[in-house]
Design the sequence.
């Protein structure tokens, strides 16, 4: 299982701070650095800059919403970033959420599975250097893109529900999950994804699991902090459904919290259920916890 770090500066930090964070992640030996796309810096633009400054580590988006970006433009931008990063981009995409798509962007969230299926049908050929002629219900596209030096990135989808996992298995390279606990990964995400990939005649898909992590001597304080920091995710329907499958009251219940050996054991156990990549969302509450959490996660790098 490859171990990566979920970046914490993309929304709140400067470009220089993002580069420094990614550089430290690489120096610590991690396999990947993941940049979220929320309401701060644009993740793909940031990774293009980081890709020129940090030479070896995989750089992933986690995740870029599809609705505001036409699949042709997403492909063009991803190819450009991958050229800047010498082929190290993992393009993570997702729907976002109905309250964002409709409430903030004023767009329709009707038929989200159909939207993602057609999005991938259009985008993936562009990423492979092919012209596209697509006449669907969501997109009507004719054209091609030419990005010298741009190669097809790995593409993963923030797929949670069964139908989205099936679309992902048929058309993309894997999934990147959040707020999805180990039981749900083992009993739902991974078997649905792998069965659909096999049915489509494709290789076993990549499964990237992101979870909150804190090494601490004060478990109760860390649980309370997790409940506060990650509270919004318990109210978003797609994540709420995954928490319900896990039997979790909220995101704090799936956070990996404990002493060094407990945290290391819980992360390592994810490999046994088929997780191919782990992205740690570190949330230490003081300098000692921050340092100890990073040390434990580093110890799992092989």
Sequence:
């Amino acid at each position: 299982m490859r171990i990566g770090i979920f970046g914490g500066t993309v929304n709140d930090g400067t470009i220089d701070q993002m580069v420094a964070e990614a550089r430290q992640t690489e120096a610590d030996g991690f396999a990947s650095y993941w940049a979220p796309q929320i309401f701060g810096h644009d993740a793909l633009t940031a990774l293009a800059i980081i890709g020129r400054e940090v030479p070896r580590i995989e750089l992933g988006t986690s995740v870029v919403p599809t609705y505001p970006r036409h699949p042709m433009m997403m492909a063009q931008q991803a190819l450009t970033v991958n050229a800047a990063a010498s082929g190290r981009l993992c393009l993570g995409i997702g729907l976002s959420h109905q309250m964002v798509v409709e409430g903030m962007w004023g767009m329709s969230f009707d038929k989200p599975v159909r939207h993602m299926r057609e999005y991938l049908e259009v985008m993936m050929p562009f990423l492979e250097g092919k012209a596209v002629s697509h006449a669907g219900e969501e997109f009507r596209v004719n054209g091609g893109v030419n990005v010298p030096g741009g190669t097809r990135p790995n593409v993963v989808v923030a797929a949670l529900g069964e139908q989205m996992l099936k679309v992902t298995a048929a058309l993309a390279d894997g999934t990147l999950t959040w707020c999805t606990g180990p039981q749900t990964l083992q009993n739902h995400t991974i078997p649905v994804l792998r069965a659909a990939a096999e049915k489509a005649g494709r290789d076993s898909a990549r499964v990237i699991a992101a979870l909150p992590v804190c090494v601490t001597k004060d478990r109760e304080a860390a649980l309370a902090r997790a409940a506060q920091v990650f509270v919004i995710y318990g109210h978003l329907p797609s994540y709420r459904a995954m928490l319900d499958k896990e039997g979790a009251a909220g995101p704090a219940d799936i956070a990996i919290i404990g002493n060094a050996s407990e945290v290391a054991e819980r992360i390592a156990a994810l490999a046994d259920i088929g997780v191919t990549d782990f992205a740690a969302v570190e949330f230490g509450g003081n300098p000692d916890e921050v340092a100890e959490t990073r040390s434990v996660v580093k110890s799992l790098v092989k």
The two ends are 9 Å apart (CA to CA). Residues 180 and 243 are 7 Å apart (CA to CA). Residues 2-299 form a domain with the TIM Barrel fold (CATH 3.20.20.30).
